[in-house]
Amino acid sequence: MEQLVGIRELNDLIERKSTFVDALTMGMNKVIVGQKHLVESLLVGLLSDGHILLEGVPGLAKTLAIKTLANLIDADFSRIQFTPDLLPADVIGTVIYSQKDEKFSVRKGPVFANLVLADEINRAPAKVQSALLEAMQERQVTIGDSTFALGDPFLVLATQNPIEQEGTYPLPEAQVDRFMLKVVIDYPKKDEEKLIIRQNLAKEMPRLSPALTPADIIAARDVVRKVYIDEKIERYIVDLVFATRFPKDYGLDNLQDMIAFGASPRASINLALAARAYAFIKRRGYVIPEDVRAICYDVLRHRIGLSYEAEANNMTSEEMITEILNVVEVP
Questions:
Q1: What is the pLDDT along the chain (331 residues), one digit of tens a residue?
Q2: Under DSSP, is residue 106 helix (H, G, I), strand (E, B) or coil?
Q3: Which long-range contacts (CB under 8 A, 24 or more apart) does 311-320 make?
Q4: Positions of CATH 3.40.50.300 in the chain
Q5: Which residues, in sequence order, are bridge partners of residue 181?
Q6: Which residue pairs from 133-142 have beta carbons closer than 8 angstroms and sit at least 24 positions apart in sequence?
Q7: Domain 228-327 belongs to what architecture?
Q8: Where in the chain is the domain with CATH 1.10.8.80?
Q9: Which H/E stretch holds residue 21?
Q10: Is residue 11 a contact partner of residue 285, using CB atoms and an 8 Å limit?
């Protein structure tokens, strides 16, 4: 009975504290036509303090969505266009010598912002990718002898183009694992595309005023941490992740030779964190299995290694996740 009262109070708290979700969604929808899943994923990443990798062909409003979100939360925004000749110093900053003052000083790079857009991250060589990914993991940057903490919130939103592979440096699996979500963006529907044409022909993009501040996001994250996860849901999350590692134990013998390696413990952590944020967006103080299933593809798709046999059979990680979701018992 006490637990029911506690969850009721938590529901009321989340109902009050999550009102800004509507304001953010409405603001995004004024500029971005369709792409509901992209908008939801950006909010999940923002509320659960997780970085996002966006994959989609050019022109699907990836950059526009991120810039719009930065405007709505009144956050510092920087965009880094990744190119093959980019250097780590171009991202994190460098030490420069001033002849006037006769001393060295630190010039900070574009990574010092709340929202950092790493555009076409797979176009830069490994040392640039690792400089950014170190900042993502440690939330700090070392330039010369000085170490600087990055601001809060700090969110990296990286994009990559799946169709052009010439002149690209694919992210290694260990680095891709640092991204909480990998969101695959598809083309808009016909009626959505008509709206996109009208908006662009009018040449009058809606002017957005900030709906909240970075401090509000940090406060909201504290509330998201209070969202209740039952032990049965925890067991469900662990079962989903273990099914990617030991498919035979779950009656998925056909996947045994298709998976080179399963999802890491980061997958379990991120499934729980993202499910909490998703429940918060849906104005609920507790996580239900549907929350886990809704974010499962984005959390797991980049964490399952496909074997040569899977590639030969044109099998994707999404198909494997669907099979796992169909087989693992829902609490």
A1: 445 457 778 777 887 777 788 888 888 888 877 778 888 898 899 999 889 998 887 777 778 888 888 888 888 889 988 888 888 888 888 888 777 777 888 888 888 988 999 888 888 888 888 888 778 888 888 887 788 888 888 889 888 877 666 667 777 777 788 899 999 888 878 887 888 788 777 766 677 778 788 888 888 888 888 888 989 999 999 999 999 999 888 888 888 888 888 888 999 999 999 999 999 998 888 899 999 999 999 999 988 888 888 888 888 888 899 999 998 888 8
A2: strand
A3: 313/258, 315/258, 320/244, 320/255, 320/258, 320/259
A4: 2-218
A5: 52
A6: 133/175, 133/178, 135/91, 135/92, 135/111, 136/51, 136/178, 137/178, 141/92, 141/93, 141/108, 141/109, 141/111, 141/112
A7: Orthogonal Bundle (1.10)
A8: 228-327
A9: helix 19-31
A10: yes
Q: Side chain identity at 66, as an amino acid letter?
A: I
Q: Are strands 259-261 and 155-160 parallel, antiparallel or unpaired?
A: unpaired
* The domain over range 2-218 is classified in CATH as 2.40.10.270: no
- Strand 115-119 relative to strand 155-160: parallel, antiparallel, unpaired? parallel
pTM value? 0.87
Residue given tokens 């980049």 in the structure block: 302
Q: Minimal CA–CA distance to 120: which of 177, 64, 58?
A: 58
Q: What span, in angstroms and rounded, lies between the C-alpha atoms of 239 and 44?
A: 22
- Indicate the DSSP class of residue 27: H
Distances (CA, A) of 254 to 88, 243, 320: 43, 12, 10
